[in-house]
Amino acid sequence: MRFRLFLAALWFLCIHPDDASSQATDDFHLHTNSLYKELLEKGGPVGDKLSAKLPAPSMADGLDKAGQAKVLKRLAGEDYPLDELLRASVLSPQISKFRDVDAGDADGRGRGIDLWFIAYGNFDRLTAKTLQAHFLGGSTRVTPLKEADLKQRGISARAEANLEETYVHAVGSILDRVQVSSTNHGMISRSKDSIVLATRLDPRFAKDADFPNQWRPITIQEDGKESLGPPQPYQGAGMYLRLTRLHEPAGAIFVEFHQVFVEPKKWFDAPNMLKSKLPIVIQSEVRTFRRELQKLKAKE
To answer: Where do the H-state alpha helices sit in the chain?
Structure first.
């Protein structure tokens, strides 16, 4: 997967903790989106035995213009001029953090990614399909599981006015070194001014014949063609994406992304290869997402 925003990573579609988390108990999404609630309160799996809680959202629902501005100023800090973060440009900066997470796994490293940026577009035109298309790790092949696929496995998906439950199988490469395939259970909830997409690798598909959770090493042959090694089991990934409509500037959308996942030690020769490559990948994919929002708006 070129892994779109990596984010997702690998899988599926401001900072002022005191201000935001103090309102989290009244968060519409906590009451509506059970997967999002679980990722915040219990955590996402990062190994056979451990889970890591995802950070609370930086931007809460219900803030007025002054409250949102306070969150944004806190996020910008001294490192980013606020007017640069808010600039309506594909090239505006984003803030990203890459951290280590205890995975309790001798064969894998726990990783965490946190990302914040501003994009411009028509918030009301954002759909589950739009978000999944851009936050599935840049997967080269994305397959939504059909009702018959789920029924065959004893699974059902909900579809309500403000909540959509999805199951998506994604296949893609990471840094052209590893091919990852995963089936992700997702829940997308929507309020008037915010959208949350929460996804988690579904362990029920660990050895599925059609939609397995696995990774395979990629080898480049002398003729330049890719060769895939034997499949290895993969588990451990959870993330959420939250988009909030800002009061101003007009058309501004605050985007934040938080993810935990396991990086098997066999993926790369150098333990920090992913960390060193991620900033460039994230920058590229943030810009791609901004361009796509512009295209949607241009069609109005």
So the answer is: 17-21, 28-32, 34-41, 65-76, 82-85, 128-134, 147-152, 273-298
Asked if pLDDT for residue 34 goes beyond 90, the answer is yes
Radius of gyration for the alpha carbons in the chain, expressed in angstroms and rounded: 19
pLDDT value of position 124: 85
What phi and psi, each to the nearest 5 degrees, are found at residue 170? -125, 140
Q: What confidence score (pLDDT) does residue 295 get?
A: 81
* Rounded distance between C-alpha atoms, residue 235 and residue 160, angstroms: 29
Rounded to the nearest 10°, the torsion over CA 30, 31, 32, 33 is 30
Contact assessment for residue 189 and residue 240, using Cβ atoms and an 8 Å cutoff: no
| Helix segments in 144-272, DSSP class H | 147-152
Quote the CA–CA distance of 190 and 188 in Å, as a whole number.
7
Contacts 24+ apart (CB under 8 A), 66-71: 67/19, 68/244, 68/246, 68/247, 68/254, 70/16, 70/19, 71/14, 71/15, 71/16, 71/19, 71/20
Q: Is the pLDDT of residue 140 over 90?
A: no
Q: How far apart are the first and last CA of the chain?
A: 31
Give the tens place of pLDDT for each residue, 119-132: 999 898 776 665 65
Q: What's the one-letter identity of residue 206?
A: A
Cα–Cα distance measured from residue 175 to residue 178, given in angstroms and rounded to the nearest whole number: 7
Q: How far, CA to CA in Å, does 55 sit from each of 9, 15, 39, 241?
A: 16, 11, 9, 11
Rounded to two decimals, what is the model's pTM? 0.86
Backbone angles phi, psi at 178, to 5 degrees: -140, 135
Q: Tell me the average pLDDT across 65-85.
A: 91
Measured CA to CA in angstroms, residue 134 lies from 48, 155, 188, 216, 268 at distances of 29, 25, 14, 23, 25
Q: Are 4 and 11 in contact (CB under 8 A)?
A: no
